[in-house]
Specification:
Order of helices and strands: HHHHHEEEEEEHH
Low-confidence stretches: 3-7, 15-20
Largest sheet: 6 strands, antiparallel
Shape: globular
CATH architecture: Roll
CATH topology: Nuclear Transport Factor 2, Chain: A
Distance between the termini: 36 Å
Radius of gyration: 17 Å
Structural class: alpha+beta
Mean pLDDT: 79
CATH class: Alpha Beta
CATH superfamily: Tgt2/MlaC
Number of helices: 7
Length: 196
């Protein structure tokens, strides 16, 4: 299971480098290469300075993902019930939770082979799906798909689907269950960014 999560963080970290002139798949490919190069060049520092892992993750992930859209999708119908300041702190809390949860797994990546499927359209909102498959020695290959949207001529990740499990959907079930049992005021204050 640790290997699966290790691969997950690698893919989470390989969101696209934004470029209007690149295809969705090229942005994923180029960023994957850049992340792997940074991992190799910084391995010693990443192992000795845990705080640098957080910095490294934030620098590479945060600009590549549309956390505002992801947060809205995660909260579904409840999103409209949040006030503007609650939305802002939830977006920050959701982003920080993902960064903190997965950053420490970063160092587990071990040169797995990555291949790509053809990009395809999904839904009616203009989203494009870019899929990667990671080979794993002695295990079934892992498929990761990026649901990407074009914003201001740049492609951003709106969801990750790991072996057919959507990051947005899995967190939606968890958060909405907590929201139902805890109530909105208590739920939103469980995020440190919202507790102030």
């Amino acid at each position: 299971m640790k290997i699966i999560y290790s691969i997950l963080i690698l893919i989470l970290l390989t969101g696209p480098v934004m470029s209007a002139s690149k295809s969705e798949q090229d942005t994923i490919r180029d960023t994957t290469a850049a992340v792997l190069e940074q991992l190799e060049n910084s391995r010693g520092r990443l192992e000795s300075e845990p705080a640098y892992i957080q910095e490294f993750v934030r620098e590479l992930i945060v600009p590549q993902f549309d956390f505002a859209l992801m947060s809205q999708l995660v909260m579904g119908k409840h999103w409209k019930k949040f006030e503007l300041n609650e939305r802002r702190c939830f977006i920050a809390g959701f982003r920080n939770m993902l960064v903190e949860r997965y950053a420490y797994i970063l160092l587990s990546y071990d040169n797995q082979q990555i291949s790509y499927a053809d990009t395809k359209s999904i839904g009616t909102e203009g989203l494009r799906l870019v899929s990667q498959t990671i080979s794993r020695e002695g295990a079934k290959p892992l498929t990761i798909a990026y649901a990407m949207e074009k914003m201001d001529e740049e492609w951003k990740v709106a969801d990750l689907i790991i072996d057919d499990v959507s990051l947005v959907r899995s967190h939606r079930g968890m958060f909405q269950s907590r929201l139902h049992s805890q109530g909105q005021d208590y739920f939103i204050k469980t995020f440190p960014e919202c507790a102030r």
